[in-house]
Amino acid sequence: MPELPEVETTRRGIAPHVEGREITEVIVRQPRLRVPVPDDLVDRLIGARIGTLDRRAKYLLVPLEGEKGSLLWHLGMSGSLRVARVGELPKKHDHVDLVLDDGAVLRYHDPRRFGFVDWLAGDVEHDPRLARLGPEPLSEAFDGARLFELSRRRRMAVKPFLMDNAVVVGVGNIYAAEALFLAGIDPRRAAGRISRERYDRLAAAVREVLAAAITQGGTTLRDFVSGTGEPGYFAQRLNVYGRDGEPCRRCGAELRLVTLGQRASVFCGECQT
Ligand SMILES: [Zn+2]
């Protein structure tokens, strides 16, 4: 599933190919995405020029110059965007094309169709889908103080707390598990019973794992352009995620699996307390 680093890498990968370009044609092969493609979207897009791409949480924002609003693109469970060329035949599950004035085609692929592209009118921060989101994990608004203050008197386990979009956006299951390992915190520990000092370490660990994933994603940027198929999601060297039963890379103990907030959580019972 595309997580924040994949969406950010997508933004960086497609931006140089689409920003400032005029949309000359829109092809919707499959409008029934998680949110149906709006009927009036094609008319709105044709002749419009694409502004500077942005991202909020896992939403990609594609503003149109001279309009108060943006395309709001979500990649869902299996979506990807890449840049093809006019004349390049679509593959199965290539649902939406934005054809640009230089012959490039921004092409949306989504086998499971949990993603969507919708029109967001007006100010981005007032859209109900975005208004209640917490800060970006790589921004200054996210730190140990925030985690500490929001967690007081909360009994929920720290891992689902960290994955709550109102606390901080974009910390999915993989990155929560990896950050808790780096910070040495047991994912089952009650959020309200973790010290400020440990939350400082956890916030730093969240930044570290996400920044590393984005950096690694940068090495795959060429995959966003024609020919190579879908951009792969990053196969990082993971310490705990997906490694239950395997030895801890730090101490050699067997990694354990628990379920927290309906999500599988792997951790080291020796290194994480
Ligand atoms: Zn260990």
From TrEMBL:
Catalysed reactions, semicolon-separated: Hydrolysis of DNA containing ring-opened 7-methylguanine residues, releasing 2,6-diamino-4-hydroxy-5-(N-methyl)formamidopyrimidine; 2'-deoxyribonucleotide-(2'-deoxyribose 5'-phosphate)-2'-deoxyribonucleotide-DNA = a 3'-end 2'-deoxyribonucleotide-(2,3-dehydro-2,3-deoxyribose 5'-phosphate)-DNA + a 5'-end 5'-phospho-2'-deoxyribonucleoside-DNA + H(+)
Keywords assigned: DNA damage, DNA repair, DNA-binding, Glycosidase, Hydrolase, Lyase, Metal-binding, Multifunctional enzyme, Zinc, Zinc-finger
InterPro entries noted in UniProt: DNA_glyclase_Znf_dom_DNA_BS (IPR015887), FPG_cat (IPR012319), FPG_Glyclase (IPR020629), FPG_N (IPR035937), H2TH_FPG (IPR015886), Ribosomal_uS13-like_H2TH (IPR010979), Znf_DNA_glyclase/AP_lyase (IPR000214), Znf_FPG/IleRS (IPR010663)
Enzyme Commission number, as recorded: 3.2.2.23, 4.2.99.18
Residue sites binding DNA per the record: 93, 112, 154
Record flagged with keyword Zinc: yes
Start and end residues of each Formamidopyrimidine-DNA glycosylase catalytic domain: 2-115
Source organism, top-level taxon: Bacteria
Cofactor: Zn(2+)
Segments forming domain FPG-type: 239-273
Active site: 2-3, 58, 263
Molecular function GO terms recorded: 8-oxo-7,8-dihydroguanine DNA N-glycosylase activity; class I DNA-(apurinic or apyrimidinic site) endonuclease activity; damaged DNA binding; zinc ion binding
GO BP: any one term: base-excision repair
PANTHER family hit by this protein: FORMAMIDOPYRIMIDINE-DNA GLYCOSYLASE
Function: Involved in base excision repair of DNA damaged by oxidation or by mutagenic agents. Acts as DNA glycosylase that recognizes and removes damaged bases. Has a preference for oxidized purines, such as 7,8-dihydro-8-oxoguanine (8-oxoG). Has AP (apurinic/apyrimidinic) lyase activity and introduces nicks in the DNA strand. Cleaves the DNA backbone by beta-delta elimination to generate a single-strand break at the site of the removed base with both 3'- and 5'-phosphates.
Family: Belongs to the FPG family.
Quaternary structure, from the entry: Monomer.
Name under which the protein is recorded: Formamidopyrimidine-DNA glycosylase
Source species of the chain: Halomonas organivorans
GN (gene name): mutM
